[in-house]
Every structure is written in C-alpha cells, then in structure tokens.
Write a structure and sequence with these properties.
276 residues, Rossmann fold, two-stranded antiparallel ribbon
Length: 276
C-alpha cells in the first residue's frame, strides 16, 4: 500500500511561477529529461507508421498546435469540466481531457477491462482521468504520477471529488525513476506527449516530448516495475515517431499488440498493449 502524499495547496488560482505550487513529499528525478535518445537500429516492435506526412499535414499540425497552445494549453484559469463521466478540475498548464480526446478514448478502453484487485500506475496522469478510470474498473490501488506539480494537485483533487481518494494516490515525479524497486504493478498506463519538438514551457510539455527525451526512459522503467505477467498500455498518435518509439519498446524487451485505434480528422489515436 502506498501512503498518501502530503500535498499543500497554496491556493492561488493564478498561474504565476509559484501561484499554487504544491509541496509533494516525493523525490523528483530529472535525469532522463537531460539524456539524448541513443537507440540501436532494431525492429519496430510491432508499431507501424501511419498516415502520409506531406506538407499539408505538417501545416495543419502546426496550425492546430498554435491555436491549441494559445487558447487552451496556456490558459491561466482553472476549468471545471466533465470528461469520461468524471467531474474534473483542470488547473493551468494541465492537459485538458475534454478538448484533447486521447484521454477520453483511453478511459473508454479501460472501462471495458476488469482490473479488480489490480495495482496500477498512471504515468503522466495530468488531470488524473486515467487513474480514476482504472479505479472505476476495479483497481484496488492506483498511483498517479506527473512531473507537473499542477497536474499532481489536479489529480489529487479529482480523486477526492469523484469519491476515489481512498484508492488513488498521487505523487509528483519524472516517470517512475524516484519510486523504490517495490511494490511492482500489475498494470501501467501512460498517454505521453505525442509529438516531437521542444516544448515552449510547462504547459506545452503535454504536447511536445522534446523530442521524445521526456519519454525515452518510460519503457525500460516500466519494464523494471511490472509484475512478470503485467502489462503496459501506452497511447500514441499517428503523428508520433512510431519507428523510434518501436525501437525503444523493443529495447526494453516488450512485445507490442494493437489494442485500440480511434481516428478523427487528420490523426489516429493508437493504444498499444505491451508485454514481455
């Protein structure tokens, strides 16, 4: 059983540099964020690059990001929303699950699983919507992790607001690096940043992975903390570099199976089940 983190809310609703910074009793390991990706050329682990990547698609991606960043990602107010049948408070710099639909698609898939008695970790939890969905699917213990302290506080607030605070614990850390070797998890969930490129700021880290520095260590860390029969569910995009991510998956010793795919407009959200 994980102990609940001691989170102090300094309760300003503005998004200044220390506006509502939380004190979360957990060590934040930033090592992987500074390491470049260096992966040998091996097979792509079952991931198939999707969609054309012509100039029109690139233009549309830049156009969508420009408006998403300025109108949604960099907002300075707390939003109260409904997503995946949960009532959620989404603080500034936290990925907005009712606008960016990958989280709702992922939660919809989790609703079809039986996680009764399982221990689950949600890496990059954001608003906590996937952690809540895992608890709703029966998970006994859910650990929600995010490097963004605003996200950690949102996830904690939302767990309690939706009556799941007894099963969802929240910590602020980079991936799984600051966790002790035990306990191991039955299931790990992650919907990491989908796009290469340097993030402008904290708010943009939910979109750009810098380029994939922020998720380079995800698969090996997850492999070390899964039970022998456990699995990792990771949601990627047709705009992600699936060749590179496939090599990272293969390097960590996982086999990939396509679990779910949902297409809209110019992009597909692709959920993979990874097992050793």
């Amino acid at each position: 059983m994980w102990n609940n983190c001691n989170i102090k809310d300094h309760s300003s609703d503005s998004c200044g540099s220390a506006g509502f910074v939380k004190q979360i009793v957990s060590k934040v390991d930033q090592t992987s964020a500074s390491n470049a990706i260096d992966v040998p050329a091996i097979s792509a682990g079952g991931l198939v690059q999707r969609g054309a990547r012509g100039p029109l698609r690139r233009f549309l991606r830049v156009f969508i990001h420009f408006f998403s960043y300025h109108l949604i990602l960099s907002r300075r107010s707390i939003r109260t929303i409904r997503a995946a049948r949960f009532h959620l408070r989404v603080r500034p710099t936290v990925f907005h699950p009712s606008v960016f639909l990958s989280s709702e698609y992922f939660a919809e898939y989790l609703d079809g699983l039986d996680l009764s008695g399982k221990s689950v970790a949600d890496i990059g939890t954001g608003s906590g919507v996937l952690a809540l969905a895992a608890a709703r699917a029966g998970a006994t213990e859910v650990l929600a992790l995010d490097i963004n302290p605003n996200a950690a506080l949102s996830a904690l607030e939302n767990a309690h607001a939706n009556g799941l605070g007894d099963r969802v614990t929240v910590a602020c850390m980079n991936l799984l690096a600051a966790l002790p070797p035990l306990p191991l998890f039955d299931v790990i969930l992650s919907s990491p940043p989908k796009h290469a490129g340097e993030p402008r700021d904290l708010a943009d880290r939910g979109w750009h992975a810098g380029p994939y520095r922020d998720v380079a260590a995800l698969f090996e860390q997850a492999r070390e903390r899964l039970k022998p029969d456990g699995c990792l569910y990771v949601m990627l995009s047709s705009d992600s570099d699936l060749d590179l991510l496939g090599r990272l998956i293969n390097k960590a010793g996982f086999r990939a199976r396509l679990a779910y795919e949902r297409s809209f407009f110019i992009e597909s959200m692709i959920l993979y089940e990874l097992r050793t």
